């Protein structure tokens, strides 16, 4: 579900830019960077990013034209936490956009729909499961 440019009015894109910058700023500020101090953890994060980039390029999805990578977001959220998951999946989305998988103008809208929303859903589901189980 990589949205292309020109599908929505410019005001929606500007709002998405502001919300995406706020989400990335929040993630960068609150990320537990101590988890990435060891070379092993950084290697695992890099390998997971490359793997998700390859899977995302395969356009594996629910239906043709609906490529929503909720499983990748859940994997990143469970492995690294929601803050680092937002940053890492944002880097993967940037790689997808660089390879022509989406438009530059709609990058922030793609970030909100394909990165922030699944990571928030996965983190909320994890919190509910820990609380009730």
Structure description:
- It is a single chain.
- This protein is mainly alpha-helical and 133 residues long.
- 71% of the residues lie in helices and 0% in strands.
- It has helices spanning 10-30, 39-57, 70-80, 82-98, 107-132.
- α2 crosses α4 and α4 packs antiparallel against α5.
Beta-strand percentage?
under 5%
What is the tally of beta strands?
Answer: 0
Low-confidence stretches: none
Would you list the SSEs in sequence order as H and E? Answer: HHHHH
Q: What's the overall average pLDDT, rounded? A: 86
Oligomer: single chain
Shape: globular
> Helix/strand/pairing class, anyone?
mainly alpha
Question: What distance lies between the first and last C-alpha atoms, to the nearest angstrom?
Answer: 34 Å
Largest sheet entry: none
Radius of gyration: 15 Å
């Amino acid at each position: 579900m990589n949205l292309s440019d020109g599908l929505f009015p410019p005001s929606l894109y500007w709002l998405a830019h502001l919300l995406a910058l706020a989400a990335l700023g929040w993630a960068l500020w609150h990320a537990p960077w101590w988890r990435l101090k060891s070379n092993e953890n950084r290697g695992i994060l890099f390998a997971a990013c490359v793997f998700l980039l390859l899977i995302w390029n395969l356009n594996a999805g629910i239906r043709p034209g609906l490529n929503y990578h909720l499983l990748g977001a859940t994997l990143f959220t469970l492995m690294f936490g929601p803050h680092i998951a937002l940053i890492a999946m944002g880097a993967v989305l940037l790689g997808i956009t660089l390879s022509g998988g989406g438009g530059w103008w709609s990058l922030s809208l793609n970030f909100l729909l394909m990165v922030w929303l699944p990571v928030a859903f996965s983190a909320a589901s994890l919190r509910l499961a820990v609380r009730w189980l």
